[in-house]
Amino acid sequence: MKRENRNKVGTQKRLNSQEIVHKYQENIETQIDKIEVRADIKEEWTNIQTIIVNSAKEIIGIRKKERNDWFDDECREIILEKNKA
Asked: What residue ranges do the domains of the chain occupy?
């Protein structure tokens, strides 16, 4: 499974919780109510986009990347030797 798909799966599992979804929606609504309406549509969209991303990070969280325990210094040295050739 590709990395980006693994991250989506983790996020989707969290969104299955109605409590998490409700908190996420409330957070977005609260933040949008706080911003001032701007005449510039690009600035307005940037504000909304920032609110959505920050709310997702805060409420849903960021899934930590899995580490490859098998990739160690020995592997790194072998790759460096291969690249020198």
From this structure: 3-84
